[in-house]
Design a protein that fits this description.
Blueprint lengths: L9 E2 L2 E14 L5 E12 L5 E11 L8 E5 L5 H13 L5
Antiparallel strand pairs: 1-2, 2-3, 3-4, 4-5
Length: 96
């Protein structure tokens, strides 16, 4: 949960980093175990520069998957996008 490559992205004149402030193990209404990561996203340069409270969610995959988990987060941090992410997380199901 410390290897969010997107959150460590940089580009011409723009740098983005995240600092995890809390990791919480939760279960959604479908019974899926999900890690909720509260973090601070810092963007320097560009039109979206600033420091934003952010969250990401990690869904661990079953042993039959070649991946250990799926990370879900929003690109542009705002209340609406975070709300929609929460709506999606509440609907996630995992087939075995």
């Amino acid at each position: 949960m410390t290897q969010d490559l997107y959150c460590s992205a940089s580009g011409p004149g723009v740098n983005q980093t995240c600092n995890n402030t809390q990791i919480e193990l939760t279960t959604n209404p479908q019974g899926v175990t999900i890690y909720k990561i509260d973090r601070t996203k810092t963007i320097t340069g560009g039109e979206n520069a600033g420091v934003f409270p952010d969250e990401a969610h990690v869904i661990p995959m079953t042993k039959s998957s070649q991946y250990s988990g799926v990370l879900m987060s929003v690109d542009q941090v705002n209340a609406s996008n975070i709300q929609h992410l929460g709506d999606i997380i509440r609907m996630v199901t995992v087939t075995k």
